[in-house]
Amino acid sequence: MIGRLNHVAIVVPDLAAATALYRNALGATVSDPVDVPAHGVTTVFVLLPNTKIELLHPLGENSPIAGFLAKNPAGGMHHICYEVTDIRAARDHLLAEGARVLGDGEPKIGAHGLPVLFLHPKDFCGTLVELEEVAAA
């Protein structure tokens, strides 16, 4: 059901510093910062040959990742994102298997402009999982 790894998301306390670290120290290609108000984050994508790293920073005081950063002031891994070709079919299969979908269970538009869902970390070995719908290859 799941496809390739789309990205690994890392919450960072200083987006400019993290972007510079990946660009300068590691020689990576990085995107410009993009505010995603619907999710309360600003994102920068680090482009790798086989996947991406998503650098996340809170956008506003009510950002859902502000609590994560309060508990982890240095930042840290937040979630992993897998691609699926039919997000509703994937959701229905996972619900039938006993997994919990966060929020109201309906896909939201994510940072790539595509439908996404998040799965409860307690159901996936302590890891927050994002599913992103992509076109079939």
From TrEMBL:
Belongs to the methylmalonyl-CoA epimerase family. This is methylmalonyl-CoA epimerase. Residues 4-134 form the VOC domain. Keywords: Cobalt, Isomerase, Metal-binding. One of its GO terms (biological process) is L-methylmalonyl-CoA metabolic process. InterPro entries: Glyas_Bleomycin-R_OHBP_Dase, MeMalonyl-CoA_epimerase, MMCE/EMCE_epimerase, VOC_core. SUPFAM superfamilies: Glyoxalase/Bleomycin resistance protein/Dihydroxybiphenyl dioxygenase. Gene3D superfamilies: 2,3-Dihydroxybiphenyl 1,2-Dioxygenase, domain 1 (3.10.180.10). It catalyses: (R)-methylmalonyl-CoA = (S)-methylmalonyl-CoA. Its EC number is 5.1.99.1. The keyword Magnesium does not apply. NCBIfam families: metmalonyl_epim (TIGR03081). Transmembrane segments: none annotated. It is an enzyme of class 5 (isomerase).
